[in-house]
Amino acid sequence: MTVAISVSGLRKAFGPATALDGLDLTVNTGEVHGFLGPNGAGKSTTIRVLLGLLRADAGTVRLLDGDPWRDVATLHRRLAYVPGDVTLWPNLTGGEVIDLLGRLRGGTNTKRKAELLERFDLDPRKKGRTYSKGNRQKVALVAALASDVELLLLDEPTSGLDPLMEEVFSECVKEVRQQGRTVLLSSHILSEVESLCDRVSIIRKGRTVETGSMADLRHLTRTSITAELSGAPNGLSTLAGVHNLDVQGTRLRCEVDTDKLTPVLSALSTVGVRSLTSQPPTLEELFLRHYEDDLS
Amino acid sequence: MSGTWSLIRLALRRDRIALPAWILGIFVMAISGPASFQQLYPTQAERTALAQTIDGNPAMVGVYGRIYDVADAGGLATWKTAPLCLVLVALMSLFTVMKHTRAEEESGRRELVGAGVVGRSAPLTAAILVALGANLLLAVITVLAFLGSKMPVDGTLYYGAAFFGGGAIFTALAAVLAQLTESARSANGIGVAVLAVTYVLRAAGDSGTQSWPTWLSPIGWTQQVRPFADQRPWVFLLIFGAALALLALAYALAARRDIAAGALPTRLGAPEGSWVLSSSFGLAWRLQRGGLFGWTLGFALGGLAAGTLAKDVSSMLAGNQQMADLLHTLGGARSFEESYLSLMFSILGIVASVYAVSAVLRLRAEETEGRAEPVLATGVGRLSWSLSHIAFALLGSAVLMTALGLTAGLAYGSPATLLGAALVQLPAIWLLAGLTVALFGLLPRLSSAAWAALVVFLLIGELGGLLKLDQWIMDISPYSHIPKLPGESVSWSPLIWLTAIAAVLLTAGLTGIRRRDLTA
Q1: Do B273 and A53 touch (CB under 8 A)?
Q2: Is it the case that residue B364 has pLDDT exceeding 70?
Q3: Does A222 touch chain B (CB under 8 A)?
Q4: What pLDDT digit, counting tens, does each position of A232-288 carry?
Q5: What's the rounded Cα separation, in Å, for the pair A133 and B424?
Q6: Quick one: pLDDT band at residue A295, thresholds 50, 70, 90?
Q7: Amino acid B435: pLDDT
Q8: Best residue in A53, A86, A150, A151 for a mutation probing chain B (most B CBs within 10 Å)
Q9: Contacts of residue B518 in chain A, CB cutoff 8 Å?
């Protein structure tokens, strides 16, 4: 498997403020990689280093087998970028911006552009100053998705989109993956990453705290269980891996470490189970655990 | 109206640099009249002679207006400075009102404010009061300064009131325009166009046989108050009546529209980019062409006026040795016509530098407003992105000076000589452009310090000769090194030096741009 993006030990400071503090990131070719972190974690800074807009203080950064700071023009023809906060030229129309950015990148696929305009329900004749935030985002998305590039760098691309358009965006990303292209998708919207991404890197305070496939990360967290039992449950609280146990008569709710599910389930079945629902861990829960100390 | 006071305080906080700078600048301009004219034309005979020459010259009357009174220096002093001061007062009022109304709506900040405890029309009222307050302050300090230089009291009071009235009309006009379009930029554009039309109407009425066009122009009204001659208080009815009517219209329009919407419909544009939008230079062309057209037109008209006026300059100065001496000090020992033209060209060379600096600073605006990022994330390198805008500063200023030289030449005769005299200013203009690029590349946060440098050079040039400054101070300004053409022989070495320094600054700046972080 070849690697599209490889970052290790990346450091970047702005004056006294450290934005990136030894960040690692590996994105394989052909995967959709989720790049998760709260606001200010360093997601945009990382992407801007990858684009050669910022110069790394330390660490190695390889992008499509090139140096993002040195090989700007050649690398940029092979990638497309959607910034988190899209600003357009007030007197250029959306259609003009899409064509401009496409041509500067080496050409737009006109057929796909027309199709995307249709799907995103975007009027390309309006002037940049008259678009809402969501529509500005759509202009940047259409410009990026309409080009035949190997790599898409998307910085919180759905901010400002309504749920319907988020759905369209998800479909587009799935198509991009089927075409064998690579996507780095930064987000703090976890459900979007969960449904779209093959692998995820979680960063906080400029450092990577977790990286792996969704399956890899799930074992780190807990499954929520709600059960209706035949009798009163006994001794559950003493089992390893059971948290937040709440028993009311024969009803039971608890959270179980996912790798400790087997002993807990056998303990429940000895009492007798009338009904049982279990919920897999959502990325939200996973995420909250990593940032627990920030939230409390 | 709740919240108006808080919004006024917010506006004053945001304008704590801009408004004092406007007021101070216009004030200095306004009081320069009494000082210089008392000195240059001390006797009534001299003033009468000058007034007759000027009133007999349609071009002069067109630019400045008629002289209505020569009994004391007041009439002359305000004749020369009032038109320009009124234009500046109008611009200050227009930009101030727009900044706190339409620009706030456009940026979305108005929504944030609107969700607080703020009356519907509070932002409009606050903006109007801030602009009127600035105008009032300006009028008051101008009146005090005039009284300090022993101008007649009643004439000065009339003049101050007319000054304030001009500001009030354009404040009210801006309040109306802010309701019309969705973008502050186009509203400001319409405002400047209206100002230009009122100026032209006044010029046409004053210099032609029919005086009615003057009465269609608010700028004309302020002059028709005739503060230092046969005062006409009834003209104030016209001035303040119009201001009140415009204000009423603004509030009526504001009450009928949604926030962020304009009363005028917005037009749709092209659904696809034309072939021009295929390179960073094409993008720069789209962003800069409007400015370049406007500036070129202005310079062509300026050249036409300068060329026409130059023909009459001898007869105008015939009776005034002091003025002639002054022109010699500023222009060198040549014929009056040549001195006058070379003075005009050197002033307009500095004005063209304003264009060049602002064309380069477009790069900084693109960077800080986040529009450079998507372009630089494509195959466009930083060098070609920077050069696409810098080209407008370097070649655009050449276009301006060519337009100036050719039109002045056509009006005056000998176009080739005057074209050369205009183009000889370019090395100094390029040096300013190079300085701006160097700041942008090496000290991006200080990019706008280029304006400060331009102001310092301007002051050295304007005041150096009059104040008899030491030569080494004069030498700091690149404009001091430009040969005074037409009339002098061309010395090439300063031109080559200036161009070389410009090239060094440009290279340093471009190197900096390639090496530094892009700021967001």
Answers
A1: no
A2: yes
A3: no
A4: 877 777 888 888 888 888 888 888 887 788 888 888 888 888 999 887 766 667 667
A5: 48
A6: very low
A7: 97
A8: A53
A9: 48, 53-54
Residue A147, CA distances (Å) to A108, A181, B6 in order: 5, 12, 49
- Give pLDDT, residue B96: 94
Closest residue of B to A133, CA-based? Answer: B108
Q: Which amino acid, residue B45?
A: A
Select from B513, B514, B473, B481 the least CA-distant residue to B499. B481
Q: Closest by alpha carbon to B89, among B157, B191, B1, B2?
A: B191
Burial A201-220 (b: 16+ CB within 10 A, else e): bbbbbbbbebbeebeebbeb
Select from A209, A197, A220, A222 the least CA-distant residue to A291. A209
The tokens for B110 are 């108005």
Confidence class for position A291, pLDDT limits 50, 70, 90: low
Residue B379's SS3 state is coil
The vertex-B469 CA angle with B467 and B472, nearest 5°, equals 165
CA distance A110 to A146: 8
User: Tens of pLDDT along B198-251?
Assistant: 887 887 778 766 778 788 888 889 888 888 888 889 999 999 999 999 999 999
Identical fold for domains A3-214 and A222-280, yes or no, is: no
Burial group, residue B19, by CB count within 10 angstroms (0-12, 13-18, 19+): buried
User: Per the structure block, which two tokens stand in for A279?
Assistant: 């919920």
Range A3-214 has CATH code 3.30.479.30 = no
Q: Return the residue in A96, A152, A156 with the most chain B beta carbons within 10 A, the one to mutate for interface testing.
A: A96
C-beta of residue A258 within 8 angstroms of C-beta of residue A222: yes
Beta bridge partners of A81: A153
CB-CB contact of B371 with B341 (8 Å)? no
- pLDDT attached to residue B330: 59
Cβ of B519 under 8 Å from any chain A Cβ?
Answer: no
Number of Cβ pairs closer than 8 Å across A and B? 122
Q: Do A53 and B279 touch (CB under 8 A)?
A: no
What pLDDT sits at residue B103?
85
Q: Find the CB nearest B373 among A79, A83, A103.
A: A83
Domain ranges of chain A: 3-214, 222-280
From residue B204, how far is each of A92, B58, B305 by CA, in Å? 37, 9, 14
Report the sign of the C-alpha dihedral through residues B236, B238, B242, B248, in that order. positive
What Å distances lie between residue B486 and B213, B391, B416, CA to CA? Answer: 37, 28, 11
Query: Which A-chain residues 147-176 have CB contacts (< 8 A) with chain B?
Result: 153
pLDDT in tens, B8-62: 998 899 888 889 988 988 888 788 777 677 777 777 788 887 787 777 666 667 7
Of B468, B393, B470, B382, nearest to B426 by C-alpha is B393
What residues in B contact A51, CB-CB < 8 Å? 373, 376-377
User: Residue B251 corresponds to which tokens in the numbers above?
Assistant: 């509030």
Q: Where are the domains of chain B?
A: 4-256, 280-515
DSSP at B487: T
- Which CATH number is correct for A222-280, 3.30.730, 3.60.70, 1.10.10, 3.30.70? 3.30.70
Q: What is the pLDDT of residues B167-207, one digit of tens each?
A: 999 999 999 999 987 778 778 878 888 888 888 788 777 87
Q: Complex ipTM above 0.85? A: no
Question: Is B380's CB within 8 Å of A73's CB?
Answer: yes
Question: How far is residue B394's CA from residue B378's CA, in Å, rounded to a whole number?
Answer: 26
Cβ of A83 within 8 Å of Cβ of B266? The answer is: no
